[in-house]
Design goal:
The protein is α/β, with parallel strands linked by helices and 339 residues long. It has a single domain, classed as TIM Barrel (Alpha-Beta Barrel), CATH 3.20.20. The strands form 2 sheets. It has a 6-stranded parallel β-sheet. A 3-stranded parallel β-sheet has the order 8-1-9, with helices on one face. Helix 1 packs parallel to helix 3. It is globular and about 55 Å long. It starts with a helix and ends in an 8-residue tail after the last strand. The site of 5'-deoxyadenosine (5AD) has 12 residues, from loops.
Length: 339
């Protein structure tokens, strides 16, 4: 098994059969070597820096109905919120004063945020916070919309592909959501010049090891600048409320594998990973992760952006303590992908 890690480290690749073996093992020595090699790789390209991104949750209204997600439109018990243009801008400004140089504007697919509105917001953030990067995470939009927002100053876009296997994708989403459309969005974003992030949930209902291999192959083909993966965490008011969640072990193993496959990628230790275990984030950081996205949303809306149960709203000081405890240095720089 250890040879498989070495082979992946050397070639940035393995056969499907080898990948399957590595994904399925919970051998401690293998985990340790994977952690070492993933850490070496991240240090080679990014040193010991962990980039902080200020996450602003702009809306919990969503027209979509993803079966796993707490803010799906059929969840009538969800309390909804949406930040005004001014609130979003002032939130970024106060983050800027605290040193943040990347802002991630994330929200459900909410028609309120027209291209015109988004462009105004982006333009003003860029005006008031020069030298910052603006990352958007607003779901599927038209090529035209992506183009306009890029022109207004947006730099990066996060859109998890969620599942590269059509059958699994359809089990996780309502019929009107189509995998091909989502993948087209990712390629459109690349064409428009965004730094792009894709990704998936680990341990989602119905997900098999073969499905995960398909996700890894998809990521190799797309070759994104960022990859976001985190454990599936059930949400009480969704059809998947009774399903098992993803594990720390498998999530961390996949983070290590992704670091070795896509050496220069920006890889966040996600909130979901920190939520399911007190040492999840530290393990992630020690296994190739080099980004953390602290929530800097206004206090009064935070509890309402509930994608999954117990979603933590953690203090920045705890996050910084984790990063330092894991052996790394907090960086507030823009932290662009080096390629
Ligand atoms: N558990 C974990 N992650 C989730 N997401 C949505 N719902 C859940 C859940 N129940 C993830 C999706 C989405 C991202 C914003 O949050 O992958 O792309």
């Amino acid at each position: 098994m250890i040879e498989l890690v070495e082979k992946l480290h050397e070639n940035n690749n393995l056969t499907d059969k080898e990948l399957k073996q590595l994904i399925e093992t919970d051998d401690k020595n293998t985990a340790q070597i994977l952690r070492q090699r993933a850490d070496e790789t991240r240090r080679k390209y990014y040193g010991n820096k962990v980039f902080l991104r200020g996450l602003i949750e702009i809306s919990s209204f969503c027209r979509n109905d993803c079966l796993y997600c707490g803010i799906r439109c059929s969840n009538k018990s969800a309390e909804r919120f949406r930040l005004t243009e001014n609130k979003i801008i002032s939130c970024a400004e106060s983050g800027y004063k605290r040193g943040f140089r990347t802002f991630v504007l994330q929200g459900g697919e909410d028609d309120y945020y027209t291209d015109e509105r988004m462009c105004r917001i982006i333009t003003q953030i860029k005006e008031k916070c020069p030298d910052c990067a603006v990352t958007l995470s607003l779901g599927e939009r038209t090529p035209e919309s992506y183009r306009l927002m890029k022109r207004a100053g947006a730099d990066r876009y996060l859109l998890r592909h969620e599942a590269a296997d059509t059958e699994l994708y359809q089990k996780l989403h309502p019929p009107k959501m189509i995998l091909d459309k989502r993948i087209n969005c990712l390629y459109n974003l690349k064409v428009e010049g965004y730094q792009v992030g894709a990704g998936f949930m680990v341990g989602a209902p119905f997900q098999t090891v073969d499905n995960i291999i398909a996700d890894l192959r998809f990521l190799q083909n797309l070759n994104p600048h960022m990859v976001g993966i985190g454990p599936f965490v059930p949400h009480h008011a969704t059809p998947f409320s009774g399903c098992a969640g993803g594990t720390v072990g498998l999530t961390v193993r996949l983070l290590g594998i992704i670091r070795l496959m896509l050496s220069e990628v920006l890889l966040p230790a996600t909130t979901a990973l920190g939520t399911i275990s007190p040492d999840g984030r530290i393990l992630g950081l020690q296994t190739g992760c080099n980004v953390v996205m602290p929530n800097i949303s206004p206090d009064d809306s935070r509890d309402k952006y509930e994608l999954y149960n117990n979603k933590s709203t953690e203090e920045l000081s705890n996050i910084i303590a984790d990063i330092e405890r894991a052996g790394y240095e907090v960086s507030m720089e823009r932290g662009d992908c080096i390629r």
